[in-house]
Amino acid sequence: MNFLPRAEAAAVAATTVLVFAACLLLSGCGRDQNSAASPPTDPPTNASGPPVIELSGDQLNSIKIGTVGTYSFSVEKAGIGNIDFQDDLYSDSSLSHQIFPPEAGTLSQMLVELGDQVQKGQALYSIQTDSTNIVVRSPISGQVTAVNASPGTSVEPGKDPAPCAVAEVSTKWLLASVPESDSPFFQPGQPVKVSVEAYPGLSFDGKVIKIYPDVDINTHRTTVRCEIPDKANVLRAGMLADFSIRVQKPVESVAIPANGVVREGDGTMTAWVTTDRSHFVQRDIKIGLQNDGMDQVLNGLRPGELAVTDGAIFIDNMLQAPPDDD
Fold first, then answer.
1. What is the pTM for the complete model shown?
2. Does residue 120 share a domain with residue 103?
3. Is-contact 198 239, C-beta < 8 A?
């Protein structure tokens, strides 16, 4: 057996230890480098989703947040009509009375003027017959709506025009002109709400009485007659009137206040929803009926969600604002 000299054997042993130590060191460093090369994953962002806005405490004071609920929406048809005392189209005398004399004679005196308020039994005019002087009285309380004769005029029962007419003016009529395509929606008894420019903020409630069968060949519109109580007698014949007629039962639907809805530049409607009352996500919605400051939401919101109910435009403006240069 051959042995290495003592000095040479010691050198070989030392070299072996160094090589082994280097291998261990290199192996350990490799593990540390692999661990450092795997940083924590960044939190997910909303870059590909709808816009999100975070509001500070002061900014939150500019909006109101509420729970999305439902609202009972009226289904109405609206338009413009005219106030009248009587139905000139069909000579319906249920409210207006032509006051004829009981006998033929000569009108001797007209005791009222056009527009006078009269009471039932009040003298309107007198006539002279062959045998006597007859005073003709009003059969109703109302307003004199026509004076068609003067002293010396010959008058007869039933011969038009009557010396005068009196209308029951505590009830007015609204003659509403509606498109022929809408005529199937209207039925007698439907509620109607009426307003006129002379009395802003005041509305008059009534009901549909009659839908006329003919259609104007030029305008393709038909007439709906409504009865409007007017005990104060403030409505005048010929006044233009805005009307809305409820043509269906109310519809219960998801709703949001109109101040919580924003019409975007492309015409879409949006709202802002939140789960934590500080971060707000923009949501596209579809709007239907609108009643009393409430918007019907056909899709895009669910009952129970938190949404901005006032000040939605404030958040929308923040989204549109240019970035701060600072």
1. 0.53
2. yes
3. yes
